[in-house]
Amino acid sequence: MRVRQAIRVLLPLHSKIARFRKGRRRVQPDRGAVERSVSLPEYKVVGLLYTRACPLACAHCITESSPQAKERMRLREARDYLPAIAGFGAQLCFTGGEPFLHYKDIAELIREAKRLGLHVSLVTGAGWARTEATMRARLQTLVDAGLDGLCISWDRYHEAFAKADGAATLARIAVDLGVKVNVRAVVAAKGDMEAYHRTFDGLPVSPDGHEVIRLGRATSLPEDHFSFEEEPPRGVCNTVFSPVVEPDGNVYVCCGPARFCRRPSPLLLGNARQEPLERILSRALEDPILEIIYNLGPYGLYHLLKSHGADMSAFTRRAEYTGICELCLDITDSPELVSALREILSGRDASRLLAVSRLWRTAAFGAAQQLAPG
Q: Which tens digits make up the pLDDT trace of 63-122?
């Protein structure tokens, strides 16, 4: 298969990317610029899920965190992971659960991470403190240690357990202390994402958000919380090379969805208690299945299987999907489909397929940037 043939195989994956309109003017990516900017996958952030305990038990929580959850990473193990993360030039993010429940441990780890040159952020549900004084004292401890960024998860699901003014107060304190703040909202299908972001009006925070995924505790939510698609969903995956190390040592390729995979899924990268984290992370960067997910999304795997005439009897198509994560799990949980994909991606034309997929992702995001406001 030559490059043009590879393009024809991959072209249907994201037809909307092929042409963009800005007013009445079509915007086409600069092919030369695209080819010059293409790079291999890399880790932008590696997460340490330090604890699954959380004062909240949000109805949508993909990690199923709660006050009853007891899993917690050992401080010594977390410290030992840091050099490997720094070796890949990735950022470090503490997540959970609620990392602030163990803020003294986190402060110690931040100091070591900064010594290694890491950019450090933390994700919080903002429900761990009842007073402004406590918020300021604990956050000051982390800032003194070197904390760079704070991601506040805030939406209707969090608000069922903690008041909005607490999240806004935490954001204001963080800004006062010079910390970059991002606010992430998860909304139901008919929810108003802007309404949650308005909680932080007047503060220099970066808003972010997405719809609920039917995984974790969200599987118990009513159907009106979800947006459904009947066809296997398309779309690139921006989190597949943002791995997370969990308290038991398991390393998943992304934060949340991958923890529901079934062994021996490629989404479970390994266990850092059984082999060095550096080896696990290095091996994952060379996995062509993960790169296709990153560049083209799970639909890229689906399309490769169908276009190469693979036996799809092991694939059970859902009546409806709430997002690309369900399709990803359905494919990667099947040893038969994974084996077929590895055969396709180890053939003589595999390098061309991967190269074209990189070009495709770069072209898509380059065009999207041309369309971005401002």
A: 999 999 999 999 999 999 999 999 998 799 999 999 999 999 999 999 999 999 999 999
CA 70 to chain centre: 23
The pair of three-digit structure tokens given for residue 194, joined into one six-digit string: 């802007």
Q: Per-residue DSSP letters for 105-160? A: HHHHHHHHHHHTT--EEEEE-S-S-SSHHHHHHHHHHHHHHT--EEEEE-SHHHHT
162 pLDDT tier (thresholds 50, 70, 90) = confident
Please give the Cα distance from 354 to 364 (Å, whole number).
15
Burial of 177 (0-12, 13-18, 19+ CB in 10 A): middle
Tell me whether residue 247 is exposed, middle or buried, using C-beta atoms within 10 angstroms of its C-beta: 0 to 12, 13 to 18, 19 or more.
buried
CA 18 – CA 302 distance, rounded (Å) = 20
Bridge pairing between strands 180-187 and 149-153: parallel
**The pLDDT value given to residue 207:** 86
Length of the chain: 374
By CB neighbour count within 10 A (0-12 exposed, 13-18 middle, 19+ buried), where does 121 fall?
A: buried
- Domains of the chain are 3-37+286-371 (no CATH), 45-227 (3.20.20.70)
The amino acid that residue 4 corresponds to is R
* C-alpha–C-alpha distance, residues 57 and 160, integer Å: 9
Instruction: Please give the Cα distance from 321 to 151 (Å, whole number).
Output: 28
Hey, is 86 helix, strand or coil?
A: helix
